[in-house]
Amino acid sequence: MKNNNKLPRIALGTWSWGVGFAGGDQVFGNNLGEKELKLVFETAMKNGLNLWDTAVAYGMGASEEILGAFAKTYPRESLILSTKFTPQIAGDSADPVADMCAASLERLGTDYIDIYWIHNPGDVDKWTKYLIPLVKSGKVKHVGVSNHNLEEIKRAESILAKGGVHISAIQNHYSLLYRSSEEGGILDYCKENNITFFAYMVLEQGALSGKYDTKHPLPEGSQRAMTYNPVLPEIEALIDSMKNIGEKYNASVSQIAMAWAIAKGTTPIIGVTKPAHVEDAAKVTEIILTAEEIGELESMASKTGVDTRGSWEHPMV
Q1: Name one GO cellular component term (predicted).
Q2: Relative to the CA of 108, which of 69, 122, 238, 297 has its CA 20 to 30 Å away?
């Protein structure tokens, strides 16, 4: 990310923290609050993983409130906090972006956000310009765009540049099963412009964790079960390949998925709900995959024929 060389190689995601609309209970089949997550947060901080990604839309503020409760117990400068403006839930005031940002600041218990994102490209020309005064005021240190294709990214950059602000980060769905941002030239654009690419859903909500198969499906009743349980047979061969490569590194399937994302020059955002998830993530940077292994993984992934594009995403290519 521009102007910041201190970012850890892995970001920690909080989509499954808290309950409510688009929250952990509905999407992931979890029901997690401060009591269950406190040790997760503390384990991460002890391991130097201090980059936390959330959004208003995760449980309609519930995720931010939990993260904020933990953040208040640490010096602010020891944390990197990332949250988002979601156009689909914007109000109709004179500056809905500033309003949503102010509410996020309050829930997070801070007076500035390290990375503030436009969550979805509802209307690039309408929303992007509102980020400029937030940066000028110091309430936002860096800005990013999420779920934007290359054309939309370039348009957002041109709008921001007029105000002396630049895109520091891109956050898109990117995994072995969904490489649309790479195919659409976004990864190359990021490298050329010194922009950090944050890859979310690297584990495809657990489908690429090695914990689930046809005999052990994802939690029934959750959105992720409806999405991934039908394709578990198609990804078995890929999971087997990930297991085999993992044996060489004494690594889990999840760790191989993360190591692949890092090898591709991205910063994976890993959803953490247990201390063990954090400990696994902390060890991933020690895994350096060979070009042959990367090629094998990508070949096996292509053979699955599975498309995991989310209902909220439009095509990147």
Answers
A1: cytosol
A2: 122
